[in-house]
Amino acid sequence: MFKGSFVALITPMLPDGNVDFPSLQKLVEMHVKNGTHGIVAVGTTGESATLPMHEHIKVVESVVNYAAGQMPVIAGSGANSTEEAIYLSKEMVSCGIDGFLSVVPYYNKPQQQGIVAHFDAIAGATDLPVLLYNVPARTVTDMTTETVVKLAKHPNIVGLKDATGDLSRLHEERSALGQDFMLLSGDDSTGCEFMCSGGDGVISVTANIVPDKMAQICNAALSGDFDRAQRIDSALTDLHQELFVESNPVIPKWALYKMGLIESPELRLPMVKPELNSQKVIEQRLEDLELI
């Protein structure tokens, strides 16, 4: 259902802080042209934390319209309030999305039993498939494999985005969850190895910058051509790391701005543009890759 290279799409903004919908359309069309397998709209990289609900829904709806059925669109619907996540999910059903990505509740540090209850409630609120999202570096709370196994019993919970970067977790999860439960990497630095070790795909920040290369890596890995996948990925090792020298999506937005793909590198406060040294680092990488 959800396999291959899914871009964790940025939300472009104008200097006045409003969403830049023409640039958003240009980005979606670029991903269609370059073979990206799907889009995650308004996840962490899309600045979900600072988009009010009406804007969040409008961006998701716009991405669906721009994609025009040429690739699946997954909507970020996570919140640290179960009630809010359910409300947002229900509101986005009519947008024409193909599923939801819902993150482990952040800041309030729920128990594992609370995580189960949270996601069971969200998954039961609509008929659309749900991908769980575990990213303890941002949420503090780590969703255990045992918890995922419990949640996988819900018919609408179809997969997991694992952003731990711990490949031993993949083997543990695959063994416990079987082949039908989708496992996607949320860590670009280990994403290729994740797929070559049995993962189904990536939800990638790097795909914002080199969508063609990330799609090629996933196509090769899914077809069993691991040498080709690793060869393409090896040229992106530094890019994977340098896109995160400051909090995501600060650097990806700066890179897309320098590449001429968005009008402005504007972010919503409290995020601000990258430090001068970080700008120089990513600009040099883009030059090395002949992207600028």
Automatic annotation (TrEMBL):
- Which lineage? Bacteria, Pseudomonadati, Pseudomonadota, Gammaproteobacteria, Alteromonadales
Report which superkingdom the organism of origin falls in: Bacteria
Location in the cell: Cytoplasm
Keyword Lipid biosynthesis found:
no
Q: Which Gene3D superfamilies match?
A: Aldolase class I
One of the GO BP terms on file: diaminopimelate biosynthetic process
Q: Does the keyword Amino-acid biosynthesis apply?
A: yes
Query: Which residues does the UniProt site feature Part of a proton relay during catalysis point to?
Result: 44, 107
Instruction: Mention any Pfam family matching this sequence.
Output: DHDPS
What gene name is listed for this protein?
dapA_1
EC annotation? Answer: 4.3.3.7
One Gene Ontology CC term in the entry: cytosol
Give this protein's Gene Ontology molecular function annotations.
4-hydroxy-tetrahydrodipicolinate synthase activity
Catalytic activity entry: L-aspartate 4-semialdehyde + pyruvate = (2S,4S)-4-hydroxy-2,3,4,5-tetrahydrodipicolinate + H2O + H(+)
| Residues noted as binding pyruvate in the record, renumbered to the chain | 45, 203
Q: Which organism is it from?
A: Agaribacter marinus
Key words, A-Z: Amino-acid biosynthesis, Cytoplasm, Diaminopimelate biosynthesis, Lyase, Lysine biosynthesis, Schiff base
Q: What does this protein do?
A: Catalyzes the condensation of (S)-aspartate-beta-semialdehyde [(S)-ASA] and pyruvate to 4-hydroxy-tetrahydrodipicolinate (HTPA).
Q: What is its main location?
A: cytoplasm
Official protein name in the record: 4-hydroxy-tetrahydrodipicolinate synthase
